[in-house]
Amino acid sequence: MMIESIKHRRSVRKFQEKPIEEEKLLEILEAARLAPSGNNKQPWVFIVIKNEENRKKVAQVTGEQLWIASAPVVIVAVADLSARSDRFEGQYLDEESPQFDLKRSIRDTAIAVEHILLEADNQGLGTCWCGAFRQKTIRPVLNIPDDKFVLAVIPLGYADEAPKARPRKDLETILRYERW
Ligand SMILES: Cc1cc2nc3c(=O)[nH]c(=O)nc-3n(C[C@H](O)[C@H](O)[C@H](O)COP(=O)(O)O)c2cc1C
Q1: Closest ligand 1 atom, residue 111 Cα
Q2: How far is the CA of 11 from the centre of ligand 1 (A)?
Q3: Could you read off the pLDDT tens digit of each residue along the chain, which spans 180 residues?
Q4: In terms of C-beta density within 10 A (0-12 exposed, 13-18 middle, 19 or more buried), how is residue 160 classed?
Q5: Looking at the domain 2-177, which fold is it?
Q6: What separation in angstroms does the CA of 20 have from each of 25, 26, 35, 128?
Q7: Checking CA distances to 74, which of 30, 66, 99, 178 falls within 20 to 30 Å?
Q8: Ligand 1 geometric centre to CA of 89 (Å)
Q9: Rg of the chain's alpha carbons, rounded to an integer?
Q10: DSSP for residue 147
C-alpha cells in the first residue's frame, strides 16, 4: 500500500553492507522512469554508482557526509535543463544563480505533489499534475500573494476513463553508471 510506504519512510543514514538485489534496484529506477512530467519531457538522468571509490568521492563532495558511501548503491538524479526547450541549451545553473534559493521551495513542493499523486492512485482515484498556467494569471484568481509560486493544479476524482500508458524513455536512455 502506497500510504504505508509514505508513512513508514524515514531518512536513513546508516546502512548494512548487504548488496541490493538487482531486481529491486531496477524496480526503484522503474518508479522514477514512470513519473509524470510536463509535456512528458522526462527531463532526468539517473547515475547509478556502485563502485566504492566513486561512492566515497560523491559522499566527500556532498558536504563531507561520508556515511553516504556506506550505502551499497548511490543514485545521483540529474535534471537535464535542455530537455525542456532548445532555449536552455548550454544554460548554466548553479547555487549562485539568481533566485536559486527559490527553486528549493519548488523542489520540496514537487516531492509533496508526487506523494499526492501516488496516494490518490492507491485510493483508487485519478489525478493529473497540471502545470499549464502562468503565475501572473492564476495568482489573482486564488488570491495568492506574489511571493508564492503555484507548482501544480491537481484535479482529483474517480476516473471515468482508462488512459493507455504514455511512452517513457527506456532505462538505457536515462541511466548512467558511475559517471555521466
Ligand atoms: C531536498 C532535500 C535535501 C536533503 N538533504 C539532506 C542531506 O544533505 N543530509 C541529510 O542527512 N538529510 C537530508 N535530507 C533529509 C531531510 O533532513 C529529511 O527529509 C527531513 O528532515 C524529514 O525527515 P524524514 O525524511 O525522515 O521524514 C534532505 C531532504 C530533502 C527533501
Answers
A1: 31
A2: 6
A3: 788 999 889 999 999 999 999 999 999 999 999 999 999 999 999 999 999 999 999 999 999 999 999 999 999 999 998 887 777 777 788 999 989 999 999 999 999 999 999 999 999 999 999 999 999 999 999 999 999 999 999 999 999 999 999 999 999 999 999 999
A4: exposed
A5: NADH Oxidase (3.40.109)
A6: 7, 10, 22, 33
A7: 99
A8: 31
A9: 19
A10: T
CA of 6 to the centre of ligand 1 (A): 14
pTM above 0.85, yes or no: yes
| Torsion sign over Cα 155, 79, 169, 24 | negative
Place of cell 505533489: 113
Asked whether 10 lines ligand 1 (CB < 6 A), one says yes
Residue 23 exposed, middle or buried by CB count within 10 Å (0-12, 13-18, 19+): exposed
For residue 74, which amino acid is it?
A: V
Q: Where are the domains of the chain?
A: 2-177
